[in-house]
Amino acid sequence: MPNTYVSAAEAMIRKEGGRATDSRVRILALLLAEDQAITHREIETRMSGQQLDRVTLYRVLQWLADRGLIHKISSDDHVWRFHVNHAAYAHQHAHFKCTNCAKVVCLEDLASGRQSERLLTLPAGYRFQAIELTIKGLCAKCV
Amino acid sequence: MPNTYVSAAEAMIRKEGGRATDSRVRILALLLAEDQAITHREIETRMSGQQLDRVTLYRVLQWLADRGLIHKISSDDHVWRFHVNHAAYAHQHAHFKCTNCAKVVCLEDLASGRQSERLLTLPAGYRFQAIELTIKGLCAKCV
DNA sequence: ATGATATCGCAACACAGTTGCATTGATTGT
DNA sequence: ACAATCAATGCAACTGTGTTGCGATATCAT
User: Fold this and answer.
1) B63-100: pLDDT as tens digits
2) Are strands A70-73 and A81-84 parallel, antiparallel or unpaired?
3) Which of A65-79, A105-119, B90-104, B126-140 bottoms out in mean pLDDT, i.e. has the lowest?
4) Cβ contact A51 with chain C strand, < 7 A
5) Rounded (10°) angle between helices A54-66 and A22-32
6) For residues A17-46, average pLDDT
7) Which fold has domain A3-85?
8) Which of B80, B114, B129, B143 to mutate to test the interface with A (most CBs of A within 10 A)?
């Protein structure tokens, strides 16, 4: 884990007014270094060797997500995946999931909220709040 | 459960070449009578009183989904919901989920596959297969 | 009616995620 | 630098969804 990720992680956590504990810093640094969205299980595996309780990992991930440092991605395999909130993904954005290797990546921000809202009509009396868009297909490795 | 749903369910099952067992017929009839997508748990509750094992329900739902009589809807609460495949929903279609009461309904078929595909660009080498679109908001009751 | 076998029911399991509580440790004030 | 505070951790136990193996049962073709 390059030192830049660790110090960046610590700075982000302190900026939120939270305690910069080992767990938080290491987990966020790991996510900063990762370009794709990864699961709780995958993080746990990468962390093995270092002391880290399952529950703590759940709580740290929730804490980071609550403060908008990362975001949770729902998927059809019913496992949450986590990804850092880079500037490009600050707004609503779509996700891509490979149907072969289950890799999940964030797609660039698309002004799809408004556009897609117009593509379809909600039943009378329904109110629009947000849109969730997942593209399924094959990633470059699995094509 | 009106008789028409039961006989319709039985006909659909036989058409697929499967055995028209009590469980299959009753479950499919229940889904035919339901306008919104419901969970395994909700079906189990509605079936209580009648002999029906949890595992059988899971297997029947999978069997119906495999043959395209119903479809499974993934959601951010990580619970599958099931809905009959009416003609209007035969193609790719979006879903609506109420953020208050968790009600899920299928939205009309929208030619969003091609349109949305054009809205965003996949990374180089990626292949498009399908799109999943969920609108979140408030249903008429929860507005 | 009967036999072949698809389907069911039960038990046990796998895995994601949560809660309560005692312990630990990061920060703050002195 | 050190103690006090209380946020955060680790552990144990739990919940809920979904799966697997296998013997028992029920459907359908004959």
Assistant:
1) 999 999 999 999 999 999 999 998 766 677 899 999 99
2) antiparallel
3) A105-119
4) no
5) 70
6) 96
7) Arc Repressor Mutant, subunit A (1.10.10)
8) B129
What is B88-137's CATH topology?
Dna Ligase; domain 1 (3.30.1490)
Token pair of B54 as six digits: 């949890």
Q: Domain residue spans in chain B?
A: 3-85, 88-137
Asked if the model's pLDDT at residue A13 lies above 60, the reply is yes
Distance of alpha carbon A28 from alpha carbon A121, whole angstroms: 40
Three-state secondary structure call for residue A127:
strand
Cβ contact B108–A115 (<8 Å): no
Evaluate if the CB of A52 falls below 7 Å from strand C.
no
Sheet holding A70-73, edge to edge: A38-39, A81-84, A70-73
Rounded Cα distance, A138 and A68, in Å: 29
User: Do B3-85 and B88-137 fold alike per CATH?
Assistant: no
In angstroms, rounded to a whole number, what is the distance separating the alpha carbons of residues B2 and B137? 32
